[in-house]
Structures are given as structure tokens and as C-alpha cells.
Design a protein that fits this description.
The protein is 34% helix and 21% strand. By secondary structure, the protein is of the alpha+beta class.
């Protein structure tokens, strides 16, 4: 386990490995991706969100949350997320990464981040009815944040509407990017071809979740891309 200074790593590990201790208390589930995130109260009054590492694609039905990959997956995501924040990318604060060994080379892993109180994922924000100029302003801010991520050398590789968080505020919404488990780091900007694949992955997420183009109309997507392309 790697844990941020000031946190009780033993107590945190106990709550992660023993769900009955409160990690999965009713009503505490948060954002959804491959797995739920569950809240854990912190001594400073904030909350941490615990996410179990899960496979995507066909592997998710076979190996579920068991891995054999090296280096250990949650520690890779911890390192990438910390470096992304150091490079100015809006990402959550990572508090801990934990691995529990199974049989032989198999292991399970968890990543713990500080909850961004009041934030919701982009798809949830769109479903809540933000519209017109407000929606396009939101999507333009998303475009600017994705551009910053790519110019900072972070290739996300699994970008979708649920991996982007929105925190309302003045003068406008604040954007955070999460789930860097498949990300790749570059010394300079992400190569153009890879950056385009990130955006194409996001567009497929839109196509999947909004098949009727009710929440993200063509002009809305154009607002995001236009902001992304503005240097």
C-alpha cells in the first residue's frame, strides 16, 4: 500500500478489504464506470472515494477484478494521476493505492482519491437539463480542459462522458478528468494522432449514451471541438 502522509493506512486498508466495516454503507455510492466508487470518511472532515480496479472489454466477464499485469495497476494510476496534477491537469487528489495478493501472480487493486464534493460526471450534468448557452459554455470548458491535458503530455486512452467531472461554480463550471488507469505519459505534447483517438473515444461515448442526439446535438459537439482547437 502507498498512502498519503497524515492518513491512517492501516485503518483505510481494513475498510477497503472488509466492506462490512463501512466502506460500502448504503447511500454512499458515487460515480459509475466499470465499478462503483464508495465513500470513506476522513479524519479531516472530507471524504475519500474508493474504486476497485476492473477490466474492460471481454476480460471483464472472465477475470473481473483480478490482475496479473506488472507494474501493479493501481500504483501506475497513482503515479500518472499525481504527475498529471503536477503538470496542471485538473485531476482529483490521490490519497492511496492498495494491492491485495491472491494465488500466484494474481492480485486485486484499489485506488483512493479525495472526493470533489458536489461534482457529478458530465453525462449526469447533461441529463440534469443544462441547455442552450449554458450547455455550450460547459462543453467549451471541457474542450479547453482536454486540450490542456494533451498539451501537458497525458494520453488518456479511455475518455468518456463519465470520466469527466463537473463542479458548478462562479464564474463557470470547473472540470476534472478522472480514471487514468490506461493513460500514457509523454515528455511533450501528446502526438496528434493519439489526441484524435482520445476525442474519437469520447465521441463514441456520446454516440452510445445519447443515440438520439438529444443531450449533445451536433452544434454542442462542435462547441467542444472548437474550444479544444483554440490555441
Amino acid at each position: 500500500m502507498l498512502v498519503a502522509p497524515g492518513l491512517d493506512g492501516g485503518a483505510l486498508a481494513s475498510r477497503i478489504l472488509n466492506p462490512g466495516s463501512g466502506t460500502q454503507a448504503p447511500g454512499q455510492a458515487r460515480y459509475f464506470g466499470r465499478a462503483e466508487l464508495h465513500a470513506v470518511e476522513l479524519t479531516d472532515g472530507g471524504r475519500a472515494l474508493v474504486r476497485s480496479c476492473r477490466h474492460g472489454g471481454l476480460l471483464r466477464r472472465v477475470t473481473r477484478d483480478w490482475f496479473v499485469s506488472r507494474p501493479l495497476r493501481p500504483f501506475v494510476e497513482l503515479a500518472v494521476t499525481v504527475l498529471a496534477r503536477e503538470r496542471g491537469v485538473p485531476a482529483p487528489e490521490v490519497l492511496a493505492a492498495l494491492v491485495a495478493r491472491g494465488i500466484g501472480p494474481w492480485y486485486r487493486g484499489w485506488l483512493v482519491t479525495r472526493e470533489i464534493e458536489g461534482a457529478r460526471n458530465l453525462w449526469a450534468a447533461l441529463l440534469e437539463g443544462v441547455d442552450g448557452d449554458g450547455k455550450r459554455a460547459l462543453l467549451r470548458q471541457v474542450g479547453h480542459s482536454l486540450r490542456l491535458m494533451h498539451t501537458s503530455g497525458i494520453d488518456h486512452a479511455d475518455l468518456n462522458l463519465r470520466n469527466i467531472l463537473v463542479l458548478d461554480g462562479a464564474p463557470g463550471p470547473e472540470i476534472f478528468i478522472i480514471d487514468f488507469d490506461k493513460a500514457r505519459l509523454f515528455e511533450g505534447a501528446v502526438p496528434a494522432a493519439r489526441a484524435r483517438r482520445n476525442l474519437q473515444r469520447l465521441r463514441r461515448s456520446v454516440d452510445k449514451l445519447d443515440r438520439e442526439r438529444v443531450r449533445v446535438r451536433p452544434q454542442d459537439w462542435d462547441a467542444l471541438v472548437g474550444a479544444y482547437e483554440t490555441r
